[in-house]
Every structure is written in C-alpha cells, then in structure tokens.
Design goal:
The chain is α+β, with helices and mostly antiparallel strands. The chain has a single domain, classed as Alpha-Beta Plaits (2-Layer Sandwich). It is built from four helices and four strands; from the N terminus they run E-H-E-E-H-H-E-H. Helix 1 packs antiparallel against helix 3. The two termini are about 25 Å apart.
Length: about 110
C-alpha cells in the first residue's frame, strides 16, 4: 500500500466552507473508491486553518483514480481559491497494518 500525508493551509475566513466541501471528497473516497483504504482529515491544534490529510491507497493507479473521481474534481474546483499556498505532500509506503490488514478494514470504513 502507498500513503500520502498532505498539509493544507486555508486562507482566513474560508475554513468552515473548505472543511464542508472536503467532507464530500473524504467520504466519497472511502465509500466509492475500491483502492482507497483510509482518508483521515486532521486539524492542527496550533492553527485551525491548517489541515492534514492521511490517505492510503492500494497503489499509484488507485491514487490516480482518486484524482479523477467526481468527488475529488468537485472538491478541488470548489476550494481552489481558498488554498493559502500550495499543499505539501509527503509520499510514503505503509509498513503496518499489512496490506491484508488494510483490505480487511475496508468494509468498515463507511461507519462514520
């Protein structure tokens, strides 16, 4: 499995609208994308306008499919003007859980 850790800074005054739009992408990712195994949205304790995303995908093809998914395209178009700078992305490879462990968890991801 591969994962990405994304840090996003949001322009002041747009946080609530940004997060509301992001929920559609996060929920659509785990619900509708077979290759998405995790999509966590985290808020910085020091700066409420800084969000971190932790996402896990089966492989690069699954990540590419995510970036073409309707919920992602909609989210990006809605929030494009609200980014405060470019998002920072860190690419990683998961070590734990195992690939089988990620797959076993997938059916329970939609229980929010």
């Amino acid at each position: 499995m591969i994962s990405i850790f994304v840090t996003i800074n949001i322009k002041p005054g747009f946080r609530d609208a940004f997060v509301a739009s992001l929920m559609g992408d996060a929920q659509g990712s785990v619900r509708d994308e077979p290759g998405c195994f995790r999509f966590d949205v985290l808020q910085s304790d020091e700066n409420p306008n800084r969000l971190h995303l932790y996402e896990v995908y089966a492989d690069q093809d699954a990540l590419a499919a995510h970036r073409g998914a309707p919920h992602y395209v909609k989210w990006r178009s809605e929030v494009e003007e609200w980014f405060d700078g470019e998002p920072e992305r860190i690419a990683t490879t998961t070590v734990f859980p195992s690939d089988e462990g990620w797959r076993a968890q997938k059916p329970r991801l939609v229980n929010w």
